[in-house]
Amino acid sequence: MFELSQEHEDFRKVVRDFAEKEVAPNIAKWDAESHFPTDLVPKMGELGLFGLVVPEEFGGSAREGQGDFTSLCVAIEELGRVDQSIGITLSAGVGLGINPILTYGDDEQKLRFLPDLVAGRALAGFGLTEPEAGSDAAATKTRAARDGHEWVINGAKAFITNSGTDITLLVTVMAATGTNPDGSKELSTIIVPTGTPGFTVAPGYSKVGWCASDTHELSFDDVRVPAGNLLGPRGRGFAQFLRILDEGRIAIAALAVGLAQGCVDESVRYANERQAFGRPIGNYQAVQFMIADMELRAHTARLGYYDAASRMLAGEDFKRYAAIAKLNASNAAMENSRYATQVHGGYGFMNESAVGRFYRDAKILEVGEGTSEVQRMLIARGVGL
Ligand SMILES: Cc1cc2nc3c(=O)[nH]c(=O)nc-3n(C[C@H](O)[C@H](O)[C@H](O)COP(=O)(O)OP(=O)(O)OC[C@H]3O[C@@H](n4cnc5c(N)ncnc54)[C@H](O)[C@@H]3O)c2cc1C
Q1: 69-84: per-residue pLDDT in tens?
Q2: What is the structure's pLDDT at 65?
Q3: What share of the chain is helix, strand, coil (3-state, %, to 5)?
Q4: Residue 241: CB within 6 Å of ligand 1?
Q5: What's the CA-to-centroid distance between 372 and ligand 1, angstroms?
Q6: Which of 25, 134, 295, 355 could covalently link to 340 via disulfide, CB atoms 3.0 to 4.6 Å apart?
């Protein structure tokens, strides 16, 4: 499958139009002020962006168990083409916020949380990374102990997206709940609602990029939640989080393609306008070749995420292909942002320029949802090493 359906392409236009009207005019200010635009989230909800993979009974648009993951990726790409902070808000909102509850929640949990998350009235975070456990996520130190009908949670999480907005409803937290027979940690996932006593959200980080996205360190000090807040079976937390991350990587690849394509589009526009030595700089072959290579990277990276998404939707083992898509697309984003700022000369180095923002935003794509080294490990494992 190398082309999307007309329906998908029509949907792409709708999201592009939304991004250009609602995001583009405001994003330089939001970025400069590290402002998370809470009011935009329900508007994204009205457009149906949070509900593409969620069944109708919980407020989404997925029919007969068939969610439209491809449309979700297209929406993330199109938001990401204009701005990465808004793209990651959707990607994390669905992939890391909604998806764990949708995939592993019981009916009560789904009915309680999904309608608000799908409408964009609320957001949820995904608490895996800790100050001393990132790539090696199984080294989790956060622990949860059963006390009667409650879990008592102690520990900390680092860099959690969408975890401290005015509308954050909950964070799903991976915690050690015991020891397995082989001596390894038993890891489980527990839903912690915002505002639970002992659950503290630190002030937002000062970041290099994704400045209009919401990221916090979280701490848990004798946080008590009902036993029924366990998400999925006890001891399955790590496997659940790994599966969520595999899907999330395809979405991050789409986000990276958005950045790579945004760099092409901004550079073509600028190269046709900017005059040097009596001609538009786009007349010079050195500039044309930089942009041609950028287009090549954006196009081939898009095919990579289409491929991983179609394998996932076909029910195949897609782990290796999600890693390939993410690694390739994040490389494309890094390279394209480097060359796009070059095409823009000094203007590209200004924070308010879109390509300057892309240059700062690109780096996290090589780190979040698994570093590039982790993607290489997965690919190496996938080919039998
Ligand atoms: C803005 C932002 C948002 C984020 N959002 C979330 C979120 O919502 N939820 C969440 O749970 N996490 C989130 N993260 C965390 C992110 O997933 C981690 O930062 C990432 O997985 C890397 O972990 P680390 O930072 O601990 O780095 P480390 O794991 O300490 O890695 C440091 C370096 O060592 C390398 N390395 C580690 N182990 C190996 C190895 N075995 N072989 C070779 N190289 C290795 C890494 O590739 C990297 O280059 C976010 C991070 C950021 C910055």
Answers
A1: 999 999 999 999 999 9
A2: 67
A3: 55, 20, 25
A4: no
A5: 10
A6: 355
